Amino acid sequence: MIRRTRSKKADTHARIVAIAAKRFRELGIHQISIADLMNEAGLTVGGFYRHFSSRDQLVVEAFIAASQDIVKWSESVSSCGQAIKDYLAEDHRDHPETGCSVAALTGDVKNESDPVRAVYTREVRRLLEFFSRLAPADGALAKRQAGMLVFSACVGALELSRSVDDPKLSGDILTAVRSLLVEMTSGGASLTPRKWRTAASRRGRS
Hints:
Number of domains: 1
Number of strands: 0
CATH architecture: Orthogonal Bundle
CATH superfamily: Tetracycline Repressor, domain 2
Radius of gyration: 20 Å
Structural class: mainly alpha
Helix content: over 70%
């Protein structure tokens, strides 16, 4: 009986976190109340503190859960061009509730608590490493810088496309940034800054 009760509580806890992970990305951390989340889970507000010590705990757990969607995606991508196309796709723009939590919550996190910002920063680092690993650049430093450039451009373009109220402009932003980034990272081109390539060439001749 005790084991069944614990299992039920764990299932309920997971259901609340899953709902929060979707709604926070879709609406923003502060645009939906704990009461709304608990109501969607079929529970009362009074039951919240049987599962979480604070709102921050729910936000942290929801962010970790939300990050699993982008982890699964990144494990299936093998090229920088494909990553850019997927990330800047209209489907990703139109479904933030199942998309990248870093982009969806960029505007919210800067005003959150240290624990929330810490888990957000951890996911930013992971995605920067992912894009850096795929970036066509020579050397660890160049790949890291290229990854930062590509990922920052992707996040910015995605969030701009979601924020404007003009559908055509939204589509144009995605199309332009996606096309330019893919062109920059395809066809054997290297994103290694020219000054680094020149220095490396000089070292090679010495």
